[in-house]
Amino acid sequence: MSTLVLEHDCLIQGVQFTEDSFVAHLDDGRSISVPLTWYPRLFTGNRQERENYELIGEGEGIHWPDLDEDVSVDGIIAGRHSGESQRSLDQWLKTRTFSTVNQKESMED
């Protein structure tokens, strides 16, 4: 049996979004496109939330503070989808909906 071993041979330099995917630009010259549907929080987020990201560990990963999402370069290269359970996502979506409604009500007052 063989085992896949991933090393940090490359780091993420930046992220770009299309309508249905995000593209991780790596420091070795590659760009890897990943469907947004693989990461439901990114899929749910708006343009401003998606574009507000931070590189983690000098490019070993990406963090989206507005969406509380983290994706590693190893995960992108390996083609791993979000490991979040449906229950966790549903709870986050309820909080997000509640938060959005409160923001709208505050603006109307």
Short descriptors:
disordered C terminus, NE0471 N-terminal domain-like, 109 residues, alpha+beta, single chain
Explain the overall architecture.
- The chain has 109 residues and is an alpha+beta fold.
- It has a single domain, classed as NE0471 N-terminal domain-like (2-Layer Sandwich), CATH 3.30.2020.
- It has four helices and six strands, in the order βββααβββαα.
- It has helices at 40-44, 47-51, 73-78, 86-108, and strands spanning 12-17, 21-26, 31-35, 54-56, 61-64, 69-72.
- A three-stranded antiparallel sheet has the order 1-2-3.
- A hairpin with a 3-residue loop joins strand 1 and strand 2 (21-26).
- The N and C termini lie far apart (64 Å).
- The model is unreliable at 101-109 (pLDDT under 50).
